[in-house]
Amino acid sequence: MVLKIVQAGDPVLRQRARELMPEEITSPEVKSLIVLMRETMRDSPGVGLAAPQVGVGLRVIVVEDRPEYQAGLSAEDLAARERKPVDFHVLINPRLVVEDATPAEFHEGCLSVSGYTALVARARGVRVEALDEKGSPVSISARGWYARILQHEVDHLEGTLYLDRMETRSLATMENYRRHWAGRSTAEVRKALGLPERQG
Ligand code: ZN
Questions:
Q1: Which residue, 33, 45, 69, 163, has most beta carbons within 10 Å?
Q2: So where are the chain's domains?
Q3: In this predicted model, what pLDDT tens digit does every residue of 100-123 receive, in sequence order?
């Protein structure tokens, strides 16, 4: 079974999600939510999903970047994005700190802004402290694409969408992204869009 993913314009995507109390984490409701979020993310497919995206205002995130999702990307694209497979995991009540603020700018999408993509600059390295699905503390140090996924998903818990952070001129439908922009460097894309060169 999969859940319906809510789309931009739904108020739940603009509200701050609430923390789970320790006793809630292992409750049947939350266990079931996590299973459904995993199945919904895989069905889409997506590399991350936050509970507000399925209409639930709780601080729960699932992440998974499977090797097969990266099959369509060239070795250069994967290297530029510092993208490597990430095993499925759950983050509850996450706290994110930027460890390497160097901006990395690439096209990013969101299951709640279906069919679109835009350039978004994200910090290259972050640390996330959270609880796992058993309520045990976890600490993750992530770089590159994984760090991007974590920043994107934690943003969802604050009611923030990538639309709030994107380079607005770069917004494209997925179809036009594939047709015109995929495989080009961010510097080339910025030039073609009439955007100033990015420092760093
Ligand atoms: Zn999203």
A1: 33
A2: 11-104+120-160
A3: 999 999 999 999 999 999 999 999
- Topology of the domain comprising 11-104+120-160: Peptide Deformylase (3.90.45)
Distance (angstroms) between ligand 1 centre and the Cα of 80 equals 21
Query: pLDDT of 21-64, one tens digit each?
Result: 999 999 999 999 999 999 999 999 999 999 999 999 999 999 99
Of the candidates 153, 167, 175, 188, the residue annotated as catalytic is 153
**How many angstroms is it from 156 CA to the middle of ligand 1?**
7
Q: Which two structure tokens, joined as six digits, stand for 88?
A: 């499925």
In the residue annotation, 99 being an active-site residue is answered as: no
CA-to-CA dists, residue 114 to 6, 53, 107, 118, 161, angstroms: 10, 12, 14, 12, 12
Q: What is the pTM of this model?
A: 0.97
Distance of CA 126 from the midpoint of ligand 1 (Å): 18
What's the gap between Cα 147 and its chain centre? Answer: 9
The verdict on whether omega for the bond into residue 85 sits within 30 degrees of 0, i.e. cis, is no
Distance 114 CA to ligand 1 centre (A): 9
- The DSSP 8-state label assigned to residue 184 in this structure reads S
Contact criterion met (CB below 8 Å) for 188 and 106? no
pLDDT digits (tens, 9 = 90+) for 130-164: 999 999 999 999 999 999 999 999 999 999 999 99
